[in-house]
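for the recovery benchmark. tokens below, seq after
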């Protein structure tokens, strides 16, 4: 049931993201990052014991990472280098092949993580590995607000 609800929510979000992405890629990528951040927070709570481990939620987190990794590379056209209070670094456009490769790695790692997770211990290991992708990309390709 939870998986079905998560999938239904993802479909609705995907449709809305497609419409927004066509007219405002900065808003679309912010929306994806917000959703991804919410899923990451759920994972962190499970790891910290603040929320009970739930295999369906764990798999939904990794599904969100795969979805984000598929959509994000297309949301950085030359026309969206600035504006919308973007924190996207110019390095994205200077090193676009590396930038896109990082999303491919995130997707691959999230897919492998989803397949490997069976319990809290395996989730801890997989979640940590996958979220390293996020941190590495943010360190290189995001402008930190002061």
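predicted aa per position
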């Amino acid at each position: 049931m939870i998986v079905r609800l998560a999938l239904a929510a993802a479909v609705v979000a995907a449709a809305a993201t497609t419409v927004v992405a066509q007219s405002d890629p900065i808003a679309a990528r912010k929306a994806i990052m917000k959703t991804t951040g919410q899923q990451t927070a759920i994972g962190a709570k499970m790891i910290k014991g603040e929320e009970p481990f739930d295999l369906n939620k764990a798999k939904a987190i990794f599904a969100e990472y795969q979805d984000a990794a598929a959509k994000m590379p297309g949301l950085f056209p030359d026309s969206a280098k600035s504006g919308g209070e973007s924190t996207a670094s110019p390095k994205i456009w200077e090193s676009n092949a590396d930038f896109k490769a990082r999303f491919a790695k995130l997707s691959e790692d999230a897919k492998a993580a989803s397949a490997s997770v069976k319990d809290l211990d395996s989730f801890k290991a997989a979640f940590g590995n996958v979220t390293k992708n996020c941190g590495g990309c943010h360190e290189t390709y995001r402008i930190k607000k002061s």
